[in-house]
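Hey, can you fold this?
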Amino acid sequence: MERDGGGGSLFFRGLQNRSHEKMKLRTRKSTLYLSQQKRTGRGGDFLGENIYLVLFTIALRICNCFLVQTSFVPDEYWQSLEVAHHMVFNYGYLTWEWTERLRGYTYPLIFASIYKILHLLGKDSVQLLIWIPRLAQALLSAIADLRLYSLMKQLENQQVARWVFFCQLCSWFTWYCCTRTLTNTMETVLTIIALFYYPLEGSKFMNSVKYSSLVALAFIIRPTAVIPWIPLLFRHFWQEQRKLDLILHQFLPVGFVTLSFSLIIDRIFFGQWTLVQYNFLKFNVLQNVGSFYGSHPWHWYFSQGFPAVLGTHLPFFIHGCLLAPKRYRIFLVTVLWTLLVYSMLSHKEFRFIYPVLPFCMVFCVHQRGTLDVMTTIQELCYNNTNISSASVLMMMPCHSTPYYSHVHHPLPMRFLQCPPDLTGKGDYLVEADIFYLNPLKWLYREFQNDSTLPTHLIIFSILEEEINPFLISNKYERTAIFFHTHFPESRTGSHIYVYERKLKGKLNQT
């Protein structure tokens, strides 16, 4: 498309001349202005994340372990530690679930291994027998927290991942349960880690064998662990082009190996071949024996259980659900499906729905992009060796982002303005409205001279396709993506894109 010649650009009127003046800028020594990559890369990586983040998470969960000194439900002892103690020291008491072979030895075997090591080392004091299993569970929960953070960093960006991570750490029910030796806790840990490998749009570590192996392991530990995964497994099967290969070469081998593993372990300790998963489902689902320990009305999870488990996250979760983008609807379906299935059982407990809590954290973070994108502009100012030529144009609804208060640098910037009509003109249109009538035409009219083009453009995702010819013809490349909201509407997109003009021999260094 040809552009009309003549006429000066309105871009950075007043600021453009200033950009050529010599200005003495202060050197920033504060770590707030350091490059994000420099800050996160100094300590090396562990579990794919910054070592300091890993150590912080582990330390937090260890503190979590020692601060939670209350009892929740009998199962945290009687279905794990008591069984492990009996396995190693050959005395104790096993509840009726074990005589009826409703429970498997796979989960207690983890703690029995710890007990055996302590016994062989002569360190099987009562305090170590109490605290080492809980510390082991705390470590596993810390790994799950980090995997949730890594997943969100892949699906969105680091800023969103931090807020989801923050919500996870601030969840009162997670804090209350994640260091307890409950099968529900292990089920939640395995669910989060499996989700990290699940094939989601944007994920870089999707692996069908790994995620299905973790789901299968969760199933042999607690058969109801498969409930939240039914919608996810069905979605994967539906979207998979090689469906037969998925079943024959991945799901069936994984299922066969894990079930065989469970059968062998239970054969060793029960002394006979036992399919505990079938016995568990038969007693608790088909025969509804669990109602002996109390029953609740069908709506209990919706009216009491789920709101209590979410706690202060509830209003953020509800708001996030109303604005949920299409690709996260599978998480919402998973939560609702799990609540509905458990609602059909008469015996209900808070801990049963603990595994869906991490899914909910994703919905508690929204409308972050207009703040997060300012981080990129800060880095442009304080880490760009070619700062004198840098400039930014924000093609968004007016006042969408903060401005110089969040940059603190005389960087030439411009946004679409929208002052009210103070002249009394009947055909008055603000600059933002004129732009959105025909964005491509506006751009070519404004920038008739290449020298006036900004080095960086900031737009909402919904605008990208419409102005793509301008971006291509002027050699703009997308360099950053920020999640903004769960529901794009009108001129506001779900994500914010940062475009940088790349010229041969004169690349902008950010």
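Oh, and this one too while you're at it.
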Amino acid sequence: MGGCRPLGFLLGLPFALVALVISVVGCVIWVFGTVLSCLCPCCCCVAGLANMAVSLIKLPIKILKCSTDQIPC
């Protein structure tokens, strides 16, 4: 985040809070997928589930970066 973009940070904060809740759901999915892959390693859909969960976990950072990049200095 740039030093001259506090407005973008403040505008993106509500969306980042919603994304934070979604990332908690992603953490639960990731833990469930990890346990499921340990119990039955032949499930190939678990890898896709884990990748989706990791992208949900990274969502708040992506939203804050996007919102701060949209506001010019």
